[in-house]
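User: Predict the structure for this protein chain, please.
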Amino acid sequence: MGELFRSEEMTLAQLFLQSEAAYCCVSELGEIGMVQFRDLNPDVNVFQRKFVNEVRRCEEMDRKLRFVEKEIKKADMPIVDTGENPEVPVPRDMIDLEATFEKLENELKEINTNQEALKKNFLELTELKHILRRTQQFFDEMEDPTLLEESSTLLDPNEVNRVAPLRLGFVAGVIGRERIPTFERMLWRVCRGNVFLRQADIEDSLEDPSSGDQVHKSVFIIFFQGDQLKNRVKKICEGFRATLYPCPETPQERKEMLAGVNARIDDLQMVLNQTEDHRQRVLQAAAKAVRVWFIKVRKMKAIYHTLNLCNIDVTQKCLIAEVWCPVSDLDSIQFALRRGTEKSGSTVPSILNRMQTKQTPPTYNKTNKLTSGFQNIVDAYGIGSYREINPAPYTIITFPFLFAVMFGDLGHGVLMTCAALYLVLRESRLIAQKNDNEMFSMVFAGRYIMLMMGLFSIYTGIIYNDCFSKSLNVFGSGWSVRPMFNVRVGGNWTFETLEGNKVLQLDPAVDGVFKGPYPIGIDPIWNIATNKLTFLNSFKMKMSIILGVIHMLFGVTLSLFNHLYFQKPLNIYLGFIPEIVFMASLFGYLVLLIFYKWLLYDVRLSRDAPSLLIAFINMFLFNYSDPTVKPLYTGQQALQTLLVLIALACVPCMLIVKTLVLRRQYLWRKNLGTQNFGGIRVGNGPTDDEAEIIQHDQLSQHSEDEPEFNFADVAVHQAIHTIEYCLGCISNTASYLRLWALSLAHAQLSEVLWSMVMHIGLSTRSVAGFCLLSIVFCFFAVLTVAILLIMEGLSAFLHALRLHWVEFQNKFYSGQGFKFLPFTFEGILDGKFED
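Assistant: Here is the predicted structure, written as C-alpha cells:
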C-alpha cells in the first residue's frame, strides 16, 4: 500500500545469460516488461556490435513489409487485425521469413511492372481508337457536299478550273485538355496562321499508368503544307508533351486499323482483368498476415537491439547484462528467465544477481486506467526523484475539485460527465477502432480526468445553486417578505409599495424575514437580488483563500514525510518546522479570522464588523492606534504581534542557521575529530565509538566522492530558497484568488448567454414563439458547448494545472528524477516501436 504514495523500490541486477538461451530469455523479459537494460558498450560503435547483422536483416524484412503494406493500402484493402499477439520466432525461423518476404516482394513488383506495361499499352490503344474515330469525323465533315458547294459559290467559275489541287499533310494525336488553349496560340504564332487545327474532347477520363490518376485529354488533328511546317508542328507537340499517332490517309485504311485496335483492346482488357484478379488474391492473402509479420519482425529486431547492449565474456559463451527492475517483481523476472532457458533447450540456468550501487535508480510509479492520466499530469511537471512522495494520489482528488470550484455549474457538470461516461463505457470499442486523430486521442486518454471533473462540478454546482445561470428552488427560500408589512419603524409596506418599487431591501434583523439557512448551497433568492454579485464576491474570495491556504499547508506537510523517509533530521528542524510555522502563523491565522468572523457576527452585529483586510494589513504594520478599526477580540494586539515575531524568527532559521549547521557537519565528517598517532588519540572531537557511529549514520548517506563543501554556494542557495518560500507564501496565496475570479467569470458568462440568447426565445408564448424557441435553443446549445464547456473548461483546466504545479508541488516535490523505461513488447502491439 505504501508504494501507492511513493515510487517503487528499484534495484540494479546483473544477468548472466548463456549464448544459446539469451535470445529466448530476453524475449520472455520483453513480454513481461519489467526490466530496463543498461548499455554496457557505450563507447562501441553501433556498426561494430555483435548482433548488428541480425538487426540489419530485421530492418530489411521490415522494409519489405512496409512495401507490402503500402500496396495493400493502395488497393483500399483493410488490414486484418485479430488482436493476436504472436510469440517471437526462434532465430532459425528468420531464414524462412526472409524467403517468404523476398518471394512476396518480387511477386508484387513483377505484377506491378507487368500491369503498368499493360496499362500503358492499353492507354496508347485507347488514345489511338479515339484518334481514328475523331479524324474520320473531321474528314467526313470536310467532304460534306454542302460545304463544297458553299465554297465553290465564293469563287469565280472561270477560276475554279484554273485552281490546282492542293495537297495537305496532317498529324494527329492527343494532348491534355488543360493545355489546348496555350497549344493553339503557340501553333498560330510559330506557324503564322498557316496551319489548321481541329480538336475534340474525349468524354471518358483515362488512367495514367504511372500514377494511377484519372486524366482528361483531347484529340487533335493539324493540317499543314510543306516539310518545314511539319517539323515545326512536331517540335511544338513534343514541347507540350502531346502524343502523336500514325493515322492512315484513306478511309478504308482507317476503318481497318480501327477494327484491329478494337480487337487488341478487348484482348488487353481480358489480360488486365486477370492480372488485377491475381494481384488482389496476393494482397488479400498478405493482408491477413501482414500485422502478425510486423509484430514478429519488430520483436526480433528489439531483441537483437537489446542483446547489443550486453557484454560478452572472453569465452564467447555467456552474455552479461545489467538491468534496473522493481524489487517487488524479482520473482516474476526469475520465472521469466526460467521459462526462456527451458524454451531454448539450454541445460545451464540463467542467473540474476542483485548488485549494490550508488547510482540513482529510475523512478517507477505503477498506474492503472484511472491513475495514469493524473500521473501524466504530475510527470509533465517533472519526473519525481527516486522514492520521494508521489503527488498523483492526492491530485486525483484535489485537481478535479479545484477545477470544479472554478467551473461550478450543475448543468455544465452533467454535460461533461455524460461525455466522459460515453468515453469510459465504450473505451474497449474506441480502442479497437484505433483513431489516429491527435485531438481525440488526447481527450480519450484523459477520459477519467474528465469524469472526475464533471462529478466534482456537479457537486460545486449544487453548492453554488447554479444550473445554466439559474438557481433551483428545491427546499424553498429561507427569506420571507411578509414580516416586512409590519416593520416596526417608518410605517408599513403595502401592495402599492411593492408594485411601485423595483428594488426593495429585506432587513434580516426583522423577526421572520430570515427564517434560516438554505439546507444545502446558496439560497435561490440571491439569483434575483441586485446585490448578488457583492455577496458572491465576498463568499467566493474568502472561500478561495481558505482552500488555497489548506492546500499549501498540506503540501508543506507532505515534505515532512520526505525528510523522515530520507532520514534528514536537519531538514525537519531547520526546514519543515520554520516553513510550517511561518505559513500557519500568518496565513493560517487569516483563515481562522475568517471562520471566527463568520461565527461571531450575526445579522444584528454585522454592521459593526471590522474589515479583515485592514486588520491583516495593520498586523504587519503593527498599527493598532486607529480608533476607527475595532478589534475582533480581546488580546488581538498581543497575539498578532507575537505571531508576526514568530514568523520573522523563522526566516533566519532557514536563511542562516541551517547554512552554519551544514558547514559544521561537513567539517565534522571530514576530520571526524580524531586522529591516532602511535595509538594515542589526538583531538577534541568524539571518541572512537562515537566516530564509528557517526560514520555509520552519516557517511552511509553520502558517496565516497562527495564534492567539496562550498560555503558561499550553499549560502546563496539557501538564501534563494528562503526568499522564494517567504515571498511565495504571499504570491501563492494571492494566486489562489483565481478560483474566485474564474468562478465569477464562468457564472457571469453563463448568465449573459442566457439573457442574450435563450431569453429571446422565451419572450413570446405563441406558436411562432415555439418555432423561434427551437431555433434559439440550437444557438444556445452550440454556444454553451463551444464557449462554456470547451473554452471555459480548458481555461479552468489550465489554471488548476498551474495551481498544482507551482503552488502545491513546489512545497515538497523536486521532480529531478528520470523515468523507468522497461523493455517491453506492448508498444509494438500499438504500432509504436522505438529503439
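Confidence is low (pLDDT under 50) at residues 145-164, 673-688, 690-705.
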